[in-house]
């Protein structure tokens, strides 16, 4: 980059939209570029970092992945984010490019603003903000306002912010974008996709490019090198929080459950699906111990869609158990969800009796 600054790309997007998948593909197509990855995750299991570290991609060494597990990168800028970037910049061999994955609940604009902090301003620039969108979730109206609820809220208190937390986050993330990736096109009929593309386009600044993808398969050449210098262009990226209005951490919550050993993946899925549906769980992910298997099972749920696959052998130092992070809106009933998930077949439960350990945290 002509400025001599190291470029940084911010990858944002709602829970489960496909950020980690996009980053994996980016690393696979980076063509020898030395990329450092900063991963910020909501929930305390570090699932995304683990998945990327286990990827086996050439050029993707473990020390190139730094995790910021505190849930909301935009609110821990001074304590976590700036020191992490400084660490990367001060390495004997600094990276060619920094890629930052925000948690699905983070606001990108405060993060972009942080690139103006004197500690890093002269050495790094925001090459671009890339917002990954879950195409089917947009098509199903997950981020649209609920007119009845808004009306009821307005009647109750005129001064309230009338948008749903999901709608507001979606707007924050696309308002800040330099490029939007409409992902999961494999799950959309052409007409639905066209509608999503049209709707999203209507919300964006005119110069913002939209690309479509399936499983985040967008080449690094497309994603990197936008040269947006977004930190110099904050005014064109409107945010609900420009007036100093605080970013509310109480809209969403996460907690971890430990389900011991499961009989097989099918039984685990059968146990999870009705609970996800009944409680409107937004995201569930983690690793499972399957009876008789040496390999760890990765479990990924976005809304009612569940995927699982074995990624690698359990390591000797790891506790072989099923640990999942559950993420939802703040009013979800964590006690009922925990009870429902733990009431699987007795053989599935044996190892998890002491698992009351709740790492619940409201953000
Ligand atoms: N069918 C389909 N599934 C996808 C696609 N992209 C990602 N997924 C799946 O969606 C789930 C979530 O994908 P991730 O890439 O982990 O999403 P994320 O945005 O990083 O998730 P969080 O970091 O938890 O917010 C995984 O099970 C993926 O395999 C896609 O294009 N099509």
From TrEMBL:
**Segment Disordered: which positions?**
341-363
Identify its protein family: Belongs to the SIMIBI class G3E GTPase family. ZNG1 subfamily.
Role played: Zinc chaperone that directly transfers zinc cofactor to target proteins, thereby activating them. Zinc is transferred from the CXCC motif in the GTPase domain to the zinc binding site in target proteins in a process requiring GTP hydrolysis.
* Organism from which the protein derives: Denitrobaculum tricleocarpae
Which UniProt keywords are present, listed alphabetically? Answer: Chaperone, Hydrolase, Nucleotide-binding
Q: Could you tell me one molecular function GO term of this UniProt entry?
A: nucleotide binding
Q: Which InterPro entries match?
A: CobW (IPR012824), CobW-likC_sf (IPR036627), CobW-like_C (IPR011629), CobW/HypB/UreG_nucleotide-bd (IPR003495), P-loop_NTPase (IPR027417), Zinc-reg_GTPase_activator (IPR051316)
CDD domains assigned to the protein according to its UniProt record, in alphabetical order: CobW-like
Q: Which residues form the CobW C-terminal domain?
A: 177-345
Which reaction is recorded as catalysed by this protein? GTP + H2O = GDP + phosphate + H(+)
Q: Which SUPFAM superfamilies match?
A: Hypothetical protein YjiA, C-terminal domain, P-loop containing nucleoside triphosphate hydrolases
Gene3D superfamilies membership: CobW-like, C-terminal domain, P-loop containing nucleotide triphosphate hydrolases
* Name of the gene: cobW
User: Pfam families from the entry?
Assistant: cobW, CobW_C
Name used for this protein in its record: Cobalamin biosynthesis protein CobW
Q: Does the keyword Nucleotide-binding apply?
A: yes
* A Gene Ontology biological process term: cobalamin biosynthetic process
Q: Can you cite an annotated GO cellular component?
A: cytoplasm
């Amino acid at each position: 980059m002509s400025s001599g600054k190291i470029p940084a790309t911010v990858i944002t997007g709602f829970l489960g939209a496909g950020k980690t998948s996009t980053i994996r593909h980016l690393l696979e197509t980076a063509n020898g570029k030395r990329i450092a990855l900063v991963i910020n995750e909501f929930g305390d299991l570090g699932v995304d970092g683990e998945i990327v570290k286990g990827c086996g991609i050439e050029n993707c060494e473990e020390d190139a992945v730094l995790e910021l597990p505190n849930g909301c990168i935009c609110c821990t800028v001074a304590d976590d984010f700036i020191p992490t970037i400084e660490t990367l910049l001060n390495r004997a061999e600094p990276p060619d490019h920094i890629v930052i994955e925000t948690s699905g609940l983070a606001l990108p604009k405060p993060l972009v603003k942080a690139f103006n902090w004197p500690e890093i301003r002269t050495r790094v620039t925001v090459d671009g903000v890339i917002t990954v969108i879950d195409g089917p979730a947009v098509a199903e109206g997950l981020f649209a306002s609920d007119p009845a609820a808004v009306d009821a809220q307005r009647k109750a208190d005129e001064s309230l912010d009338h948008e749903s937390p999901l709608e507001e986050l979606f707007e924050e993330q696309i308002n800040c974008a330099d490029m939007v990736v409409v992902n999961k096109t494999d799950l959309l009929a052409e007409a639905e996709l066209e509608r999503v593309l049209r709707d999203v386009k209507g919300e964006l600044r005119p110069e913002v490019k939209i690309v479509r993808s399936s499983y985040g398969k967008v080449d690094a050449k497309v994603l990197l090198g936008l040269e947006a210098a977004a930190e110099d262009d904050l005014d064109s990226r409107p945010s609900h929080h420009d007036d100093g209005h605080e970013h509310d951490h109480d809209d969403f919550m996460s907690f971890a459950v430990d389900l011991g050993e499961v009989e097989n993946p099918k039984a685990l899925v059968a146990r999870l699906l009705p609970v996800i549906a009944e409680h409107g769980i937004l995201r569930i992910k983690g690793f499972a111990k399957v009876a008789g298997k040496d390999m760890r099972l990765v479990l990924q749920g976005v809304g009612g869609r569940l995927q699982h696959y074995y990624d690698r052998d359990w390591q000797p130092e790891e506790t072989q158990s099923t640990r999942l992070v559950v993420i939802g809106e703040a009013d979800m009933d964590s006690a009922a969800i925990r009870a429902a998930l733990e009431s699987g077949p007795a053989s599935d439960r044996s190892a998890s009796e002491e698992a009351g350990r709740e790492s619940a945290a409201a953000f």
